[in-house]
Amino acid sequence: MGWPTFAPALLLITLSLALSWKPLPLHPAWSARILAVCGVSTALAVLSTTLLVAAVFITGLLPRDVVSGWGSRGALLLDHGPVSLHLGLMAVVLLMVGLFGIARLGLGVRKDIRAVRGDSQYITEQDHPIALAVPGQHGGVLVSRGLMRLLNREELQVVFRHEHAHLRHRHHVYSTLTALSAALFPPLRTLHQSLRLALERWADEDTAAITGNRELVARTIARVALASPKPRTSWHLALADSHALHRVRALLGKAPSANPVAGPALLGGTGVASSGIASSCFQLHHLYVLVLL
């Protein structure tokens, strides 16, 4: 098993880390989409490569006559061998840790959603300023009594419009997908954090465009951020849960370009390139063998 087996995954890891290290000079809506595509593609590439290495390693531990009895499937796995002990064990451990992380995150998100929905009355009666978007058929925007007291009418409108922007654009889907990708492959946590910032900036710009007052949105975020406690859950998108200073500075500047040409072009190019590289990790040149099994 040579370096070409690992090249696609390494290329996508490098691309994802580069995009998460320095924000793209695009509207946050396009940045968020590109980060999500890269994160998911990288996770799939790492998963498929790890599965292949682990399968070849385990196959190498079995008697050759047993593997030969599998027919084309066994020959396909033997063709990729041998795999060293250290590399094989590393692949098995990485696979187990990644799958455990995905299962743990999935259960945690489900538990958090139930807890937030079940404690909705408790949250709204809090004296701390809290505002968060709860996705789903029975979701909506939760605002605490403390927030109602803290903000005036115009600022409260900013809060509701910001949270509705999260729900309207289904930002929880982007966040959940990259969170699962980071659970599978921990180095993608930086990309997940960059995506969360892009989602918040996306909602900020939507709100600023609707209100026509960027300073009002910036002031509201600053006031809520200074008075808000630490978020109770890790899955929801709240008004001021992260990067508040960066967002306020951005809102006090000029509105970003909508990038009607560059945005779709870069998203399309990134999607085609990353999906093409990720698909190569599935060894598509052997697909005809798997179909015949």
Automatic annotation (TrEMBL):
Cofactors named for this entry: Zn(2+)
CDD domains: M56_BlaR1_MecR1_like (cd07326)
Record-given protein name: Peptidase M48 domain-containing protein
Domain Peptidase M48: 123-181
InterPro entries named in the record: Peptidase_M48 (IPR001915)
MF term (GO), any: metal ion binding
Organism of derivation: Nocardiopsis metallicus
Keywords: Hydrolase, Membrane, Metal-binding, Metalloprotease, Protease, Transmembrane, Transmembrane helix, Zinc
Gene Ontology biological-process annotations: proteolysis
Transmembrane segments: 6-22, 34-63, 83-107
Pfam families attached to this UniProt entry: Peptidase_M48 (PF01435)
Note on how the cofactor is bound: Binds 1 zinc ion per subunit.
Domain of life per record: Bacteria
Similarity section: Belongs to the peptidase M48 family.
